[in-house]
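dude i think i finally got it to work??
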Amino acid sequence: MRIATYYINNIPVYIRNLPSGDIAVWHPYDIELGRVIYQICFGKGYWKSKYKNWLIFSGFANTVIDDIKSRSIHHAK
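look at this
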């Protein structure tokens, strides 16, 4: 399972590949970052409250990753 980490406003955003081809997007609680991630993810998957993360459908995975990358200051594998 691959996990990538991006930093937006110095806060990590973790993206994990799922066996289904979907991706999970998680970040520590932060109101402003939550708004950014909401704008990126809304309509491309759904919020999974049990895990407090977004599950993004495989067809939108690259779009969401590219949007997160474009807002990040650096990337760590």
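Residues 31-41 form the longest helix (11 residues).
im so relieved honestly
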